Amino acid sequence: MQPANPTSGRINLDPDKAEHGLAQLVLTVIELLRQIVERHAMRRVEGGTLSDEQVEDLGEALMNLEEKMEELKEIFGLDAEDLNIDLGPLGSLL
Q: Which long-range contacts (CB under 8 A, 24 or more apart) does 78-85 make?
């Protein structure tokens, strides 16, 4: 969405840019959740509460999820910096 043009009083909506912005927002939320799950998984692995098979399965699942995220970022023309939202005084999201 672009700023309103003061002479026309209308907002210029570009559907292609709206789709890109929505994809960026959705992938940012997914990346945030992926990182949270990864950190939780690492705590469980380090805590020794998982069997060797569970650790292997968890590692494979996390790698697959990361690969899928890379694929989606490529499809929408985004990189890691595009998903790192600046939260002002709170710092960066990711």
A: 78/23, 78/24, 78/27, 82/24, 83/24, 83/27, 83/28, 83/31, 84/28, 85/28
Kindly report the CA angle at 79 between 77 and 84, in degrees rounded to 5?
125
3-state secondary structure string across 4-69? CCCCCCCCCCCHHHHHHHHHHHHHHHHHHHHHHHHHHHHHHHHHCCCCHHHHHHHHHHHHHHHHHH
Phi-psi bin for 77: left (phi > 0), alpha (psi -120 to 50), beta? left
pLDDT tens digit sequence for 26-49: 899 999 999 999 999 999 999 998
pLDDT digits (tens, 9 = 90+) for 53-80: 999 999 999 999 999 999 999 999 999 8
Rounded Cα distance between 29 and 93, Å, is: 10
